[in-house]
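idk why but the lab printer keeps eating my pages so im just putting this in chat instead. protein + inosinic acid:
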Amino acid sequence: MEQDLERILITRDAIARRIEELGREVSTDLSALDDGAEVVLVAVLTGSIIFLADLIRQLPHKLRIDLVTVSSYPGRSVVSGGPVISGPLPDDLSGRHVLIVDDILDSGRTVRLLRSEIERRSPKSVRICVLLRKQTAAALRTPCDYVGFDIPDRFVVGYGLDYDDYYRNLPDIGILHPDAM
Ligand code: IMP
Ligand code: MG
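predcted complex ->
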């Protein structure tokens, strides 16, 4: 797998250190809520699974996890075709604090779609946490509460992120070599 990378962008150690910091940030904010309302993490499949697994272990709070499937890069495409939510969204979000967890903010369409669908369910609050944010005008324009790393506008894989469903199991995050696409 590693020979398909142009280079490693973020090492597993740097990811782990940053997620500890991010966890402290999120945790401080969750503690500050202190209103008895339930906390629900809504994580976007499939790219966020590894991030989610690491992040939630930094959050010593009573919370629930819901998974939603949103696809935007069908198959071998590296250009988002527009996000589609497949399957049901949790319908019991009313009065709850929701934290959307996704792997990467690119055009921002995925989190904007999810936020608007979730807001229709009358939650108490909605926040967004992404591991990566590409330096694109659209991503930077998209409101987002927690960002792990700002990265160049290149196609990256590893640590949950895929190309054609491969490379999710790479422990580091790397730029995919154009020859591998
Ligand atoms: P957006 O809706 O354009 O913000 O795209 C977000 C989704 O596209 C993410 O959840 C990823 O699944 C996918 N995506 C965007 N950029 C990349 C990338 O560089 N590598 C892998 N997947 C990506
Ligand atoms: Mg995704």
